[in-house]
Each structure stands twice: as structure tokens, then as C-alpha cells.
Amino acid sequence: MQNILVTGGAGFIGSNFVHYMLTHHAQYHLVVYDKLTYAGNLDNLIQIQDDPRYTFIHGDICDRDAIEAAVKQHDIDTIINFAAETHVDRSIMNPDAFIKTSVNGTYTLLEVARSLELERYHQISTDEVYGHIPPGRSSKETDNVAPRSPYAASKASADLLVNAYHVTYGLPVTITRGSNNIGPYQYPEKAVPLFATNAIDNLPLPVYGDGRQMREYQHVRDHCEAIDLVLHRGVIGETYNIGTGVEVENMRMIEILLEALDRPRSLIRHVVDRPGHDRRYSLDIAKITALGWEPDHSPEEAIIATAAWYKENEWWWRKIKSGEFRQYYEAQYGERLRTAAPQ
Ligand code: NAD
Ligand code: DAU
Q1: What residue ranges line ligand 2, CB within 6 angstroms?
Q2: Is pTM beyond 0.85 here?
């Protein structure tokens, strides 16, 4: 591994991964290939823009000619695919781009990797492919996928294609399925950065339903470290869950955030729930821990560190929240907040 194409590298996890790799591996060249959708943001990569080990290419993963050209030009041996539409609520509003990017886009990347005989293809997947997990159970990598939102279905479809290319064509693939990431540079549509930035501005926090849903909130840096480990020590053809093994109810996540930001509980509003809302995800992480990884942050530490980052980096999120985001916010929350039950 020498020259890595990081698709979706201008997004939240992809950009954190690029920072992580440049810090931990002096010898790699990282080529970020990104469409710069509303979620892609070159501000996430501003600190490394002059690093000669980093290159940016503006492109769509559905564009085969452009990907092939990028791979040939930079002598790419490894593709790591972070590119996707990633917000469940937007997938409910309009699934179209989700299917195009995760299904057609992943297929296109796999075709390029196969025809140019790349050394490795790694797919970034999610715990959402397993669907809602009843209490007392955790998802193992060998479990069947059972996605329930258009987003989760688009990601599960991509995983199936990746595995099919390994079985049928012998493509050297690996997959990681991460739990709910939080940390620097997460677009403030996602619950933790939305609630943190709303709380900073003393705006209401729209909690879906009773807020008793459970997520494994993990620090993005821990996730990046585990992906790095799988790239170097993972077994070809295998899938690895990456989580914390600790579930946190959304109401608890909010309490930690409000305390960290010194804001009152009166900001909480229970609003109409997300349709098909998965109540619980839970990953069995025995396989990745057996490779020698464990998270550095507890969920509480990750939430507190994330709150602090948003407090210190208003330059990053105020631009976003004052732009297109306002129309999205009105469509997603306007009616919900106007009809929210008082506390
Ligand atoms: P994000 O929405 O912050 O970033 C996605 C990036 O992909 C953006 O830079 C966007 O411009 C780019 N992109 C979208 N469509 C593209 C296309 N057609 N061609 C090229 N680039 C395109 O997402 P994220 O939260 O960083 O998630 C990254 C990956 O990790 C996704 O595959 C997601 O499914 C997966 N994942 C996310 C989480 C999480 O908690 N955020 C957890 C597990 C897995
Ligand atoms: O679990 C991994 C997944 O985590 C990733 O695959 C997705 O890309 C990522 O978006 C995230 O999905 P979630 O749906 O879990 O994240 P979100 O931040 O949207 O929501 C977290 C929880 O908070 C979830 O139970 C829904 C709830 N929520 C969310 C929003 C945006 C609210 O109660 N209110 C909100 O306004």
C-alpha cells in the first residue's frame, strides 16, 4: 500500500481518516476523490492543503472514466470508499442520491478496482445494515443484513456487491461496519453536532419520540484507528464491526452534552419520531478487538470532546448553518417544533 484513493475524503469520517493517516504513516500518498455534495467540505482538509502527500480531485464515484483517470494518474493501489449519502432523515425525504451513490457508485469503484487489478478495495459500512437489534443481542459480522431505512438499504446493497466481487472475481476486499461516529467536522444535521450547536445558541433540541433509542456513540478518531488496523492486519474477504460495545440512550447523550455546554434541560423538545426509527443498534466487537484494537474514548468522553470542539470551532459550523442548511432545517423540523409538546 502506497497510493490510496480516499473517496468521500472531504466528508466527516473521510477527512478525519486522511488526517489520521498523514499523522501516522509518513510514506503514504492520499488522493481524496470527492463530489463535494452539501456534506463535502474542503474546510475539513484546510490544515493539510499544502502537504505534498495529499491531493484533491473533484469527482463523482459514479463516473468510471474519471475514477480510472485518477487511479492511473496517481498510480493508486488501494481504494477506500467513504463516499455515500449518509443522513437517514434525508434518505426518507428522497432516497434517489442514496441509491445512485451507494449502489451505482460502489459498483463503479469495484469495476475499476477489478479491471486495473488493484491491491485492495476497502468499503466503509455501518451498523445500520443489521437493522434494529432487540435487547440482549449484539450483531456479529456473520449475521444477515436486515436494513430498514433507504439509507441502510443502500449501504447493505453496497456490502453485498463488495462481497460478491470477492467471491466471484477474487477481488481483495475488506469491509468495516462502524457504529455512530462523533467528533470534529461532522455536518450539523446529525444529532450530536445539531444538538451541540443548537445548545450553544440556546435553540431547542428536537428529540425524536421518547429519546430512549440507543446508539453506540464512538469517537471518529477511534474508528479511523480501527480502519487503519484492518487495512494492515485484516484478513482479505472479511468484515469487521467497529464500535464501543457500550450503548447510550439519546436522552443520556443529551444530558452529557447539556452539562458539558452548561445549558438547561428546558431546551429539550420531544418531536414527532423518525419513520421506521431503529431503536437499538449493538455491535459484537470481539473480532476487531482480537486484532489488537480497543477504543481510546468512552462514549461519555467522546460526547464531551465533541461538545468542546463545536464550542471552539464556530468558524467551521456557522457558515454551514447559515446556508442551504436553513431550508433543510425548516423542512425537517419546522412543523415538528411548532407542534412539539411543552416540557
Ligand atoms: P459525510 O456525509 O460527512 O461525507 C460523505 C462524503 O461523500 C462527502 O464529502 C460527499 O461530498 C461525498 N460524496 C457523496 N456522494 C458522492 C459521490 N457520488 N461521489 C464522490 N463523493 C461523494 O459522511 P460520513 O459521516 O463521513 O460517512 C462516511 C462513510 O462512513 C459513509 O459511507 C457512511 O455510510 C459511513 N459511516 C458513517 C457513520 C457515521 O456515524 N457518520 C458510521 C458508520 C459508517
Ligand atoms: O450508526 C451508524 C450511523 O450513524 C451511520 O451509518 C449514519 O451515516 C449516521 O448518520 C448515523 O445514523 P443515525 O441515524 O444513528 O444518526 P443521527 O445523528 O441522525 O441520529 C442519532 C440518534 O438521534 C437517532 O436515534 C435519531 C436521533 N435524532 C436524530 C436527529 C437528527 C433525534 O432524536 N433528533 C434529531 O434531530
Answers
A1: 86-89, 126-128, 179-180, 190-191, 194, 206-208, 213, 215, 250, 274, 281
A2: yes
